[in-house]
Write a structure and sequence with these properties.
Two copies of one chain form a homodimer. Chain A is an alpha/beta fold and 549 residues long. Among the domains of chain A are: 192 residues, Rossmann fold; 71 residues, Luciferase, domain 3, CATH 2.30.38; 97 residues, ANL, C-terminal domain (GMP Synthetase, Chain A, domain 3, 2-Layer Sandwich), CATH 3.30.300. Chain A is 30% helix and 23% strand. In chain A, the strands form six sheets. A seven-stranded mixed β-sheet of chain A has the order 7-6-5-3-4-8-9, sandwiched between helices. In chain A, α1 packs antiparallel against α2 and α9 crosses α10. The interface between A and B is large, with 75 and 75 residues.
């Protein structure tokens, strides 16, 4: 090998905020605050406050490599923490506040966090769990002095704004190895304890670059971007880095993510694109209907986290002139793996034709390698038929879980690829189709039934607001599908109506053996339907003898 | 430091062509061929042929680290060489065919090239210099069997298409350190021997990523891009990597770069954007005028290599509805350092207002650090006034010249920044303004006069096609400016008319002491005005006593 003669400069996330401050000083970060009202400033002012925060962190004794935790919504102070913590070489550990308190305790202790910065909303939660947190020495409330509580059980509780006001804004970032960790996020698996994904400066920059390179149009001309996806969830799909680099305004929605609040914010801030999970878009679409229009500038919705039903994509496309981009990924992938990505000939299709392609999970993002391994251990051909477990590889994919050799071992194959736990296939045109989570497949006799396929068919039935398919034990077939339905408000679909519609959409052997109605589906802390909870609820469910393979 | 737990995957340029072949298999590379006629294929077929070429190179004994030279225009075979050579871990050494034969000999021997691939055009040139080339064992002509010469003085001359036809298309790229060299390009300085810049896989990918991240709009929606900038010149500004990653069609113009040929190709291929040096655009604008219109889809011109005069930008903007993006860079920077980059408020300006900003050299690209050092050795403030020598730093900036410690020493400062040899300033808004090349400044008494400022003022005079300002010795002032003018066809501007116009645009002490008319200006091999040649031509010129400081 001959080594090139180019400068050996590390890729550090701190360079992102310095660039934005210099090149896009007035481009705004807008936040719907927890305290009430809108906060806005430019990237230059953000950098100034990030400098103050960096000085404060150093003053508090935070050292390179230390884990500093956050429990916070999408707001400017959370954004500041991202850069100040990573900038000094420490690790920004974003904790999902929707987890059970016991999980938060487990995660903070496992990560050995030394400090915790949290929003006002979470003061009661933090006061409750604090006695169980073994390593946290510093508690800081993300608010100003006026909103500080008169008293708190938390030892030496700091006021974020008070802290910053005492500090100097000047702070020159240290330079260090780009492989240094910059962020940590635990993924709450449906089995076992949460597992930590430890991102590096390099991996974060690579994900940022690869996302922009794969879909430059999403960031062209300083698009006004609103991440509904939380900053505590897989780096908010790396948007906190992508928007400053590309000079896009960043609109942070705070704690309230209902349709009405989102609609108002999008309207007032001229948001071009919203990024988030499908559940959120359901609420927003309801608001479109109530008001008879969408927010004036909204043109794009980026949806990930779980599969977007075709019906939702069609509605957004046809009724609201919104283009839906679908992404698939995992916390372990920083998180995006595949994304809706059209070829020039597909660009020319009618919107509703393109919408059909948007229902697929997308094509691989540059920098992500995909490998599908069949049950026989063979590499699946890209025929749109053969499915198997999906493995991934790339510079922004985890090489193992933080301090968890056992979980790491389960997930990595002999060649160093990461096993996603998803069953998938790839079409000859290169579209990834997620068939199901391995553990959510209904194993009926020798056949696998995709719960997602049946759910998508059922969601097209009028009067169904939401649904889930799980396998329940069956004496002859091992498992058979059960459809669990939440009715839309005011609607009264019957079992027979649903079965009739399904019968025209899916094969007989895929048909659910029964339909049950519930008021609501159990959800995980990350906003997905908890099939684990559903399965345990219906473990003893007696299927009628009305169907079968 | 705590190390992140992410996969250690190298950034290799071979991943670019594999991605394009898979995700954009039918997106076209279109070439105006040397043999005549248009050649077109998709990225998938390109990858297939690149696989054959890689097998051929290995068969010819090319080893990792070996330098493989090219003498070729912008065509698909040159594009193939880029990827096949770098893909096997060797170094693609693009030689500028416009250099003097002695320079080509110097460069090929200095690089110790082991093979040379060249276009038909250059057969006589290669036959002439071959006896002086000490290390080249393999000569291959970039053509098919039908176009091979009946005989040649070159030992064992190979036919490129013959070579490929015998090879297998399957070739899996080896994985190696991303710091491995992938390309080599000599910059023909205006003083001394040419100096080699040795790019690495990492630096090339970083430049690619940073360009896309800085101007995503340029590559959004699969824009049809035509590089007039040669593949033998600083990686054609990294377009051979940017276009496959972003799925942009790549239109290669071959050997003929006159206005009429370019116009036809742009029209027929629906080119959206042309990238090249200002001289080329002069010819193209003439063609617009002749035909009364521009090629139907042409919307953008990217201009770099030398400063673009305001008058040209205004014409393109006002008369032809073409947006001009201005870039500044150097071979040593892979090559882009700054680029026209608008803030949201500037995006909203009228086109002719934006055009004023496009005449500046642009804002720094993400990943490029700028430092301006005054004569006193101080860092210049960003006040738009204080100028000094421009230093640069970044992961795609050279750390030294290949096998040339002496030249390296001259160019790098104590902190590891690269000295560009340009005198520059930065406005408070972050726009870089190149005042002049250090050596092109006219040193008049204690003042510096920017030759570029005077030239830009003169180019606005009706009847001036091109011009250059050089300093000529003056007994009192040390140097004084001389304006050398090429008249436009049919125009007869007088010395007095020119001086009158200049008098209204620049200060008295900047006024040239004399004006001389020439038929043509001497050009360098890279298409820039050779001030070195002009200075030696006019070294003994007697200035009249009509002006002075």
């Amino acid at each position: 090998m001959m080594r090139g003669m180019m400068m050996d400069r590390p890729m550090l996330v701190s360079s992102v905020i310095d660039y934005a401050a210099e090149v896009f000083p007035q481009v705004e970060v807008v936040s719907n605050t927890v305290e009430g009202g809108i906060h806005r400033y430019g990237y230059a002012q953000a950098r100034e406050r990030i400098g103050r925060l960096a000085n404060a962190l150093v003053g508090l004794g935070v050292k390179p490599g230390d884990r500093v935790a956050t429990l916070a919504w999408n707001g400017y102070r959370h954004f500041e923490l991202y850069f100040a913590i990573a900038g000094i070489g420490a690790v920004c550990h974003t904790i999902n506040p929707r987890l059970f308190p016991e999980q938060i305790t487990y995660i903070a202790n496992h990560a050995e966090d030394t400090a915790l910065f949290f929003d006002l909303t979470f003061l009661p939660l933090v006061e409750k769990v604090a006695p169980t947190l073994k390593t946290i020495k510093t508690y800081a409330l993300l608010t100003d002095r006026a909103h500080m509580p008169a008293s708190s059980t938390l030892p030496g509780l700091l006021c974020y704004e008070g802290l910053l006001s005492e500090m100097d804004a000047a702070f020159t970032w240290p330079e260090f190895d780009e492989n240094a960790a910059c962020a940590l996020c635990y993924t709450s698996g449906t089995t076992g304890e949460p597992k930590g994904v430890l991102y590096s400066n390099r991996s974060m920059m690579m994900h940022t670059f690869c996302l922009i390179a794969s879909r430059p149009d999403l960031f062209a001309y300083n698009k006004r971007i609103l991440p509904v996806v939380p900053l505590f969830h897989a780096n908010a799909w790396s948007l906190p880095y992508v928007t400053p680099v590309t000079g896009c305004p960043f609109i942070l929605p705070g704690a309230k993510l209902d349709g009405a609040t989102l609609w108002e914010l999008m309207e007032n801030e001229g948001v071009d694109a919203g990024w988030g999970v499908p559940t959120v878009w359901l609420g927003l679409i309801d608001e479109f209907k109530k008001r008879g229009r969408k927010p004036k500038n909204l043109k794009q919705i980026l949806s990930g986290g779980s599969a977007v039903p075709q019906a939702m994509i069609d509605t957004l496309t046809r009724d609201w002139d919104i283009e839906v981009t679908h992404g698939w990924g995992m916390t372990e992938m920083s998180p995006i793996g595949t994304i809706t990505l059209f070829r020039p000939d597909e660009q020319k299709l009618q919107p509703l034709e393109r919408a059909k392609l948007s229902a697929l999970q997308g094509r691989r993002m540059f920098g992500v390698d995909l490998k599908i391994v069949t049950e026989k251990g063979e590499i699946a051909p890209r025929d749109g038929e053969t499915s198997g477990e999906l493995f991934v590889r790339g510079p922004a994919v985890t090489s193992g879980y933080y301090n968890n050799a056992e979980a790491t071992k389960k997930q990595m194959d002999a060649e160093g690829w990461f096993g996603t736990g998803d069953v998938a296939k790839v079409t000859p045109d290169g579209w990834l189709v997620i068939v199901d989570r391995t553990k959510d497949l209904v194993k009926s006799g020798g056949e696998w039934i995709s719960s997602i396929d049946v759910e998508n068919a059922a969601l097209a039935v009028k009067g169904i607001a939401n649904c889930a398919v799980i396998g329940v034990p069956h004496p002859k077939w091992n498992e058979r599908p059960l459809l669990v339905v939440v009715k839309a408000p005011g609607a009264e679909p019957t079992k027979q109506e649903i079965m009739d519609v399904l019968g025209s959409k899916i094969a007989k052997w895929q048909m659910p053996d029964d339909v049950v109605f519930v008021d609501a589906l159990p959800m995980t802390a990350t906003g997905k339907i908890s099939k684990k909870d559903l399965r345990s609820k219906f473990a003893d469910f007696k299927l009628p003898d009305m169907a079968g393979g």
